[in-house]
Structure formats: structure tokens, C-alpha cells
Amino acid sequence: QVQLVESGGGLVQPGGSLRLSCAASTSIFSANAMGWFRQAPGKERDLVATITRGGSTNYADSVKGRFTISKDNAKNTVYLQMNSLKPEDTAVYYCRYYGVYDYWGQGTQVTVSS
Asked: Which of 7, 22, 39, 64 is surrounded by the most beta carbons within 10 Å?
């Protein structure tokens, strides 16, 4: 089993920035990929960004140019740098480990409001 712990969420004004972290209990290099998802109240859980074992990334159209996913294999940690935040980015953000089985973190709340 893999434990994932997200952190870094909080309240930020529109246009502001936030960096989320996802710390894994095992080597993230062993994962096929790592990802960030988000879910707003009453909405489905949507893909935000992924990064493969080899470092390839992809992003939802809604966050391209504003968000950056990265990882530090030595620290077993995945990051999501969020810039130019908008109210519609408000959601609970979840870390995902893609492996033989998929694992999810508990989520961290991001609220973008003036």
C-alpha cells in the first residue's frame, strides 16, 4: 500500500499563487505516473495534471500555462505549482499514484476568493 499526504492548500486571492505538495510513503519513481486531480462541490473529480515516471507531463486545458507539475524522486514528493489562480480553481485537490493499483491522498482544500 502507498500512503499519500497532500499539503499546501489554503485561501488565496484571485491572481495569487500556491504550491501543493504530495509526499508518498514509497518511491514515486516506482509509479507509472503521478497526478493531481481536483473536485469542486457537486462536480466530478477531474484530471488537472500528470507526470510519468520518465518525466513527461500533461495538463487539463483549463490550467495550461498557469499550473506546473513536477517531482523530486529523492524526496518522494510531487508538486503542483499554481499561478494566476482563478475562483473556478477552487476545489479539493487530490494526489494520485498510478501503479498496479491506484492510490489517492486525503486531499487538500484550495479556495480562491477575494
From this structure: 22
Nearest-angstrom CA–CA distance, 33 and 103: 11
Three cell numbers at 26?
514509497
d(CA 48, CA 69) in angstroms, rounded, equals 9
State how far the Cα of 13 lies from the Cα of 76, in Å rounded to an integer: 30
Q: What is the DSSP letter of 25?
A: S
Residue pLDDT, tens place only, 16-39: 999 999 999 999 999 999 999 999
> Of all residues in the chain, what percent carry a pLDDT higher than 70?
100
What gap in Å lies between CA 21 and CA 23, rounded to an integer? 6
- What gap in Å lies between CA 30 and CA 78, rounded to an integer? 13
Amino acid making up residue 61: D
Record the cell numbers describing residue 4, joined without a space: 499519500
